[in-house]
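WARN no homologs supplied; continuing
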Amino acid sequence: MEADQLATAYIQKSRARRKALQVLYEEESYSDTVRESQEICELALKAVLRLIGIDPPKLHDVGKIVKQYASELPATMQTDVDVVARYSFQLRRDRELAFYGALDVDPAQDYTREDADAAISQVDFILEWIRPLDVSRPSSPNRSQEASDQPGDTDENA
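OK structure emitted
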């Protein structure tokens, strides 16, 4: 499998997992929502690295690496790379606690709807952020409409 095929698979898995995230949230499984959010973030950012020719390391937080190679990203993505790296770090920080807990942390009790809302918001931001590199998604009608609304275009020939 080539790097761009693997990256496309990562993006598709990220988007599928985002749909599954909603089920966890609706079941009020907030710690699992946080944990799964981290995995979605990890897959999405590893896809970005593959698409710019970087073999991602086997780490859960690759946000710093994405930031390191920001100059390889489209200009529209470079502006938010610091936010993405911060989200990746925050989600990584909660990864094990949200899943396993600790002697003083009961994930089922200590993770709240607000924690889950924050994690979902971060994941949604990242999935939207990777859109310029997402070769797995066909252009939407809105995208092609935006392209035809450029100055000088008219609807006369439509």
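Confidence is low (pLDDT under 50) at residues 139-158.
OK
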